[in-house]
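Researcher: I'm comparing several assemblies side by side, and this is the next one on my list. It has 230 residues spread over two chains. Same procedure as the others: predict the full complex and return the structure.
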Amino acid sequence: AQSVTQPDIHITVSEGASLELRCNYSYGATPYLFWYVQSPGQGLQLLLKYFSGDTLVQGIKGFEAEFKRSQSSFNLRKPSVHWSDAAEYFCAVGVGGTSYGKLTFGQGTILTVHP
Amino acid sequence: NAGVTQTPKFQVLKTGQSMTLQCAQDMNHNSMYWYRQDPGMGLRLIYYSASEGTTDKGEVPNGYNVSRLNKREFSLRLESAAPSQTSVYFCASPGQGDPSSYEQYFGPGTRLTVT
């Protein structure tokens, strides 16, 4: 069975600083990988996804993520954080075939942005 | 086109009471999923339905039952609520076809408190 680990429970950055959120997965084959963001009291919004091809994926709101098969990682990055980026971020892995909706989520990383 | 809708948005139950969470999607998708979200644990899959007429257990099915009423609707029932079922419940339905266009669409969530 697949699993996802987000090593950082809580990260604090200053506005304008760069950001990297870590995600490590465990899965035997090439997984489908996702990053979601959740603002307090809200639902989940898809930031970006990786299925195949180019390992550097661009998403919404200026985010990008890089799939590194050798490290089983899919880290999320943003060059300059805005106060509105404060939220909780979830990495998720899905398998292929008819069960690709069956996502396994990481524990989440809460991002705090200082002015 | 409302996507995925859930009712109710909030609910408070006493231990031992029963209730049904409703979910509907208007995207003509085949599969639907129920997740629960707890602090520090991400989202965990309760049950899913890969197609109309089928349901399968996810990671945390104990204490729950589901019904895929038709292609649009997928309900989650708590027969005898317990405080451990206090959580936020999300219904989701993934797109289908080419995985490169895949996205898991989430409902707004139901916040359930069991006292």
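Model: For your comparison table: The two ends of chain A are 41 Å apart (CA to CA).
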